[in-house]
UniProtKB/TrEMBL annotation:
Biological process according to GO: regulation of DNA-templated transcription
Domain PAS span(s) in chain numbering: 142-188, 265-336
All copies of domain Histidine kinase, residue ranges: 404-612
Name of the protein described by the UniProt record: histidine kinase
Record lineage: Bacteria, Bacillati, Bacillota, Bacilli, Bacillales
Matching Pfam families: HATPase_c, HisKA, PAS, PAS_4
GO molecular function, one term: ATP binding
This protein's UniProt keywords: ATP-binding, Kinase, Nucleotide-binding, Phosphoprotein, Transferase, Two-component regulatory system
Highest taxon above the source species: Bacteria
């Protein structure tokens, strides 16, 4: 049996106890084949060393689809992550044990790191698919709950999309005509009116509603006995997140007694309250709980009868053992202020929770706070998923960093190693040793040292030693550093800067390094006779330095990667200049951005805020 088959069978044997509950037989066979292809591609890379990045995409796509599938079947995040870690270890063990004899020592390290980074990315795609399924599940739950709420309302509800096609109708709306939901869903307003509905509506009602206007009128509608009953109708526009009308809702109000109305309102309020996907707490003026919905019971593990009528401060101290009187939440409620995205980590009844709190005061007719509404969202599982994704991203980044360092340092070390072998074999004459050391060994070792220094700058940047600097003087110093190389390369250097520039707090040496990096890159791509423009603008308390070249521009597929360590399009570049510049600007509280298009040139913009 091929060794790749052996490792796949070993992996599947371990996983079957978990996968058997979530995959059908044909799906399991497809998954097995996918594993074989993935391990086969890993083996092919180890043998050939060819880095075919597009070839990984089908594996990543399948991983995302697989994560989505098992999430929809109920697999828990913890089980999936545990399986992912076992899978990663099995692949790396397979690579190390089955291939190390086929690799020379220099190649083995880089290939192991590359495979590690790709497997981590693969696992991250699975988590993304899992997360997407969870979001879809939540969205579907919201939709079902919306329909449940509309179904339980004590009056007729019909919902149309912006094309006038029926999307939902509750039982009360269907009963007078003896229709079923399946008979009407998807039908247009014109079709429904022609087939079933004999009531009339004012002229241009639909046009008004589609323009954002609410329209209400009195109409005759048929009852179950085929008699016409007079009711009030209202058509309400529905809006999307951008404020555009994307449908309408028609409500038919039946005449009822005041007692029935109040009773129905109470039932409606209770149902809506308990249908919410967030916990809801309603407090009175003394911050005692007067309402506490089902979702809040699920989040805190406390029944309504345990908390209703009790002060929120007392409850917090009783179940967490901590004082809430000096908290931001209590302070905001006392002053009647709204609360947005306030996060708390609490331990209640032995359960660790991370909750997000939003709230608004309840005010009387005079505008005085008489209570408070709190919305509680449980963020515990979401944060765990995010942390898992961040860990996978860190593993992938570490692999990329180490692979880049290994690749960049190998060349100078190979040169030094080759020279020493020649010297040891006495192929280098002693008279030539000094010249070769100066011209060959020292430059190559300097290159390796520069790469390591740049890498340390990216991974552990030094805090800037900032001081107040005259911006005009700083700019003049930069120009003196770059104008000689501009003359040497035949590039025209132009400066556009206003007078009376504000002073900036800068680490002069670090910022000069940034400008030298950007100008050197510009010189490398600007043809002789071309221009390099340094332009300075002051906008919204920020000084913007623009470095504009007339080079060929940056390809769209490269543009999103240029600030990644070791990503370079130059034959002898290290790919560390721009990441270092980016880190330095961030350390100054600023931003480094880029605008470019193929054949147009490139503009790097350094934005540094200044204190007024």
């Amino acid at each position: 049996m091929w060794r790749g088959d052996m490792v796949v069978e070993s992996i599947l044997k371990i996983f079957w106890k978990d996968l058997g509950a979530y995959l059908q037989e044909d799906e399991y066979l497809t998954y097995s084949q996918h594993m074989r292809e993935l391990v086969g591609y890993v083996d092919e890379f180890i043998i050939t060393g060819e880095r075919n990045e597009p070839a990984w995409e089908p594996f990543f796509d399948y991983g995302r689809a697989y994560g989505h599938r098992v999430a929809t079947r109920g697999m828990q995040l913890e089980i999936m992550l545990e399986m992912g870690n076992m899978f990663r270890e099995s692949i790396l063990n397979h690579v190390f044990h089955n291939h190390q004899v086929k690799l020379n020592e220099q190649d083995a390290f880089g290939k192991m790191l590359y495979i590690s980074a790709k497997i981590n990315t693969y696992m991250n795609k699975i988590v993304l698919g899992f997360h997407q399924a969870q979001e879809e599940k939540v969205e579907k739950s919201y939709e079902e709950r919306r329909h449940q709420v509309l179904e339980r309302l004590p009056f007729s509800i019909v919902v149309y999309d912006k094309e006038g096609c029926l999307q939902f109708a509750n039982s009360i709306a269907l009963e007078p005509n003896g229709l079923t939901y399946e008979q009407v869903v998807g039908k247009t307003r014109a079709e429904l009116k022609q087939m079933f509905n004999r009531s009339t509506e004012p002229e241009s009602t639909w046009r008004k509603v589609m323009s954002g206007e609410r329209v209400r009128w009195r109409a005759d509608v048929p009852s179950q006995t085929d008699e016409l009953t007079q009711v009030d109708k209202e058509m309400i526009p529905l809006f999307d997140d951008d404020g555009n009308v994307n449908g309408s809702m028609t409500i038919i109000y039946s005449p009822i007694t005041e007692k029935e109305r109040l009773y129905n309102l109470h039932k409606q309020f209770s149902f809506v309250l308990n249908s919410m996907n967030s916990g809801l707490l309603i407090l009175n003026q003394d911050f005692s709980l007067t309402a506490y919905n089902k979702k809040a019971e699920d989040i805190f593990g406390l029944a309504a009868e345990q908390v209703l009528g009790t002060s929120l401060l007392d409850l917090y101290h009783r179940y967490t053992g901590k004082d809430m009187s000096e908290s931001k939440l209590n302070s905001a409620m006392k002053r009647g202020l709204p609360i947005r995205d306030l996060e708390y980590r609490i331990v209640i009844n032995g359960r660790s929770l991370t909750i997000r709190i939003d709230g608004n005061p309840i005010k009387n007719a005079e505008g005085q706070p008489v209570g408070y509404i709190l919305i509680i969202d449980d963020q515990t599982e979401l944060l765990a998923m995010r942390e898992a994704m961040m860990r996978n991203e860190k593993f992938a980044l570490i692999g990329q960093f180490a692979a880049g360092i290994a690749h960049e340092i190998r060349n100078p070390l190979t040169t030094v190693f080759g020279f020493l072998q020649l010297f040891a074999s006495k192929s280098v004459q002693p008279d030539n040793f000094h010249d070769l050391t100066v011209k060959l060994l020292i430059p190559e070792l300097d290159r390796a040292n520069t790469i390591l220094s740049d890498f340390l700058m990216v991974s552990r940047p030094q805090a800037p030693q900032r001081q107040l600097v005259c911006t005009e003087t700083f700019l003049a110093d930069v120009l003196r550093l770059v104008e000689s190389e501009a003359n040497l390369r035949g590039v025209v250097l132009e400066v556009e800067a206003p007078e009376d520039l504000p002073s900036l707090n800068l680490d002069v040496q670090q910022m000069k390094q940034v400008f030298l990096n950007l100008c050197k890159n510009a010189f490398d791509v600007t043809p002789p006779g071309g221009k390099l423009v340094l332009r300075v603008k002051v906008l919204n308390n920020v000084v913007h330095f623009e470095v504009i070249d007339e080079g060929p521009g940056i390809l769209a597929e490269d543009l999103s990667h240029i600030f990644e360590p070791f990503y370079t399009t130059k034959e002898h570049g290290t790919g560390l200049g721009l990441p270092i510049s980016h880190r330095i600007i961030e350390g100054h509280g600023g931003m480094l951005t880029v605008r470019s298009a193929e054949g147009v040139g490139t503009t790097f913009v350094i934005g540094i805020p200044f204190a007024q």
